[in-house]
Amino acid sequence: MEDANQAEVVELGFEETYPLREAVLWPGRPDLAALDCDPHGKHWGMRRRGELVSVISVFVDGDGREAQFRKFATALECQGQGLGSILLKHVMDQAQQQGVHRLWCNARSNQAGFYEKRGMQPADGGATFLKNGVEYICMEMDLRDSP
């Protein structure tokens, strides 16, 4: 396993996230890799040896109390190495520093355990829903309760 400390978190332009989003989340569906709201978000990535290996996009609501992260993707060959965890922790820390109260995402149901291990809980009683043939669950975290 490669040392995750050899990677760095970087801010990205939203267009830079598209290739990895498509490759990991929606292979062959570039239309589902892009979001209309992308120009209004903040986009982060994890680079290792110059290669973009993980991406995440964050959208803060109008009053700054809630933030949603979307299109979180880590290259398949890099999963399980801690890179996505580092990137998500960066987003959580940034949101908390900005005074965000609630951080949430619509996670693929098969990834709910990943988020639970990082302090997030199912919202809405754990109800799931389908979108584009994929089952999702809303996961959330109250950042006011986080250390």
What is the topology?
Layout: E1 7-12, H1 18-25, H2 30-33, E2 42-48, E3 51-60, E4 66-74, H3 83-97, E5 102-108, H4 112-116, E6 121-122, E7 128-131, E8 134-142
Parallel strand pairs: 4-5
Antiparallel strand pairs: 1-2, 2-3, 3-4, 5-8, 6-8, 7-8
Write out key terms for the chains shown.
8-stranded mixed beta sheet; GNAT_dom; Aminopeptidase; 4 helices; 147 residues; acyltransferase activity, transferring groups other than amino-acyl groups; alpha+beta
What does this structure look like?
This protein has 147 residues and is an alpha+beta fold. The protein has a domain at 4-104: Gcn5-related N-acetyltransferase (GNAT) (Aminopeptidase), CATH 3.40.630.30. It has helices at 18-25, 30-33, 83-97, 112-116, and strands spanning 7-12, 42-48, 51-60, 66-74, 102-108, 121-122, 128-131, 134-142. Strand 7 (128-131) and strand 8 form a beta hairpin. The radius of gyration is 15 Å and the shape is globular. It starts with 6 loop residues before the first strand and ends in a 5-residue tail after the last strand. The mean pLDDT is 93.
